[in-house]
Specification:
The complex is a heterodimer of chains A (296) and B (128). Helices cover 36% and strands 29% of the residues of chain A. Chain A is an alpha/beta fold. Chain A folds into two domains: 212 residues, Rossmann fold (3-Layer(aba) Sandwich), CATH 3.40.50.300; 73 residues, Alpha-Beta Plaits. In chain A, the strands form three sheets. Chain A has a six-stranded mixed beta sheet, sandwiched between helices. A four-stranded antiparallel beta sheet of chain A has the order 11-12-10-13, with helices on both faces. In chain A, strands 2-1-4 form a three-stranded antiparallel beta sheet. In chain A, strand 11 and strand 12 form a beta hairpin. In chain A, helix 4 runs antiparallel to helix 5 and helix 5 runs parallel beside helix 6. The longest helix of chain A has 18 residues. Chain A starts with a strand and ends with a helix. In chain A, 40% of the residues are buried. In chain B, a hairpin with a 7-residue loop joins strand 1 and strand 2. In chain B, helix 1 crosses helix 3. A two-stranded antiparallel sheet of chain B has the order 1-2. Chain B folds into two domains: 64 residues, Arc Repressor Mutant, subunit A (Orthogonal Bundle); 47 residues. Classes of the chains: A alpha/beta (296), B mainly alpha (128). At the A-B interface, helix 6, helix 7, helix 8 and helix 11 of A face helix 1, helix 2 and helix 3 of B.
């Protein structure tokens, strides 16, 4: 079953400049999808469209088969959402906020909320405006997951958090996966979190989907080739069907290929006739940098 | 269970799990009959997606390293001694592969490389 579906989404903030330029992908029930891309790639805009906060100018978005602009309440009841820029009402205490959410969501789970309060060491009487950035985000997450949503949407949830708070965040999301089997879409710049959480990654670049693959397959079938500079070689590499990007560096041309290192060597040697290349696996972080920077 | 993940190694997390569990079985740290943590517990303990753990478990089951019996936790399977030996050697072969590549890339003659390996092994057994 498809929980979330984007179909040829287009959205511009100014005429002629599409932030999203025809984005299509779906997220199935129980899937955990990491949304990657550089700042400005369109991640937040896409997430806001899914949340019904803005509407696409073209294309269609469906959440649980419904249009978030038309059925916002029904959808919101089944979604949990945390974003980096979210602000909570400062005058309320943590307890007030929890009671408010408890009243809004029929499926609110007191045990889970209290468990998270203990884990995060949150004081119910404390006013939201006195909380640190990390604590405020923890409260936001607690409110987003304690009704055991079918779909959890996290927009750069760990942005600006210290590593310990980030890990708490990750563990809470995993707890939700384990207990509820929720579907998760999250954007993140922390590739080690993506590695731990995501079953699939979608990478946006200039408003388009550049990659959409199961993470394991991507890691197993991706290599970087470092080749000596030569006239016209970058273009030759870009012409290879498996090429995902070429980056001109001092030590040579970095090319990301959608092939494991051994196959990448054979493919480059066969099509370019270059023997003196180096071929390596890529960690997700390097993969991200090489691909994002290697776009012409 | 003691498992250390190396993020950003380029090796998928489920593969890292498989390799470390295999190693622990081959090395005797996990003995036949030992119960494995549930998918849920290991996922929570390591902070990884439960699907990843279950993918690793399924593959280890297929390889005959782990055994699932209805209604019981997954356990380490008992192996006949000759198979245990084969598996140990497989592990060694895997970890030597990187060294072999380096030896070839640096053009070190085979007998010199072998001498070095022997020396290293002897030094280790003296130390322990």
């Amino acid at each position: 079953m498809t929980v979330l579906e984007f179909n040829d989404i287009r959205r511009a903030y100014r005429r002629g400049e599409n932030v999203l330029d025809g984005v299509s992908f779906g997220v199935g029930a129980g899937e955990v999808v990491g949304l990657l891309g550089r700042n400005g790639a369109g991640k937040t805009t896409l997430i806001r469209i899914a949340m019904g906060m803005i509407e696409p100018q073209d294309g269609e978005v469906r959440v649980f088969g419904m249009d978030p602009a038309r059925d916002p309440l029904e959808i919101k009841r089944r979604i949990g959402y945390v974003s980096e820029e979210q602000t909570l009402p400062g005058f309320m205490s943590i307890g007030d906020l929890i009671r408010l959410h408890r009243g809004l969501f029929p499926d609110w789970d007191d045990m889970m909320a209290e468990g998270l309060c203990d884990r995060y060491d949150l004081d119910w009487d404390k006013k939201v405006k006195t909380l640190s950035k990390g604590q405020a985000r923890q409260v936001a997450l607690l409110c987003a997951v304690s009704h055991k949503p079918e779909l959890l949407i996290l927009d750069e949830p760990a942005g600006g958090l210290d590593p310990a708070a980030r890990r708490d965040f990750l563990e809470t999301s995993i707890q939700l996966l384990n207990e509820t089997g929720s579907t998760i879409l999250f954007s993140s710049h922390h590739m080690s979190d993506v590695e731990r959480m995501a079953g699939r990654v979608v990478m946006l670049h200039n408003g388009k989907v550049l990659l959409d693959d199961p993470l394991d397959e991507l890691q197993e079938n991706m290599a970087v080739a470092i080749l000596p500079h030569a006239e016209g070689r970058a273009a030759e590499l870009q012409g290879m069907p498996e090429c995902l990007g070429v980056r001109d560096r001092i030590e040579g041309l970095h090319t990301v290929l959608r092939l494991d290192p051994a196959r990448a060597r054979t493919a480059v040697e066969d099509s370019l006739g270059v023997r003196d290349g180096r071929y390596d696996r890529l960690g997700l972080e390097e993969m991200f940098i090489e691909i994002a920077e290697g776009q012409s | 269970m003691f498992i250390v993940l190396s993020p950003n190694s380029g090796v998928p997390v489920y593969r890292q799990l498989i390799e470390q569990i295999r190693l622990q079985v081959a090395g005797g740290r996990l003995a036949p009959g030992d119960e494995m943590p549930s998918t849920r517990n290991l996922s929570a303990q390591l902070g990884v997606n439960p699907m990843t753990v279950s993918k690793a478990y399924t593959q280890l089951e297929r390889e005959g390293v782990l055994e699932r019996r209805p209604g019981r936790p997954l356990v380490v399977r008992a192996l006949p001694p000759d198979q245990a030996r084969t598996r140990k050697l497989e592990q060694v072969r895997e970890s030597l592969e990187g060294a072999v590549t380096t030896i070839r890339q640096l053009d070190v003659p085979t007998d010199e490389a072998l001498r070095l390996l022997r020396e290293m092994l002897e030094r280790q057994s003296e130390e322990t």
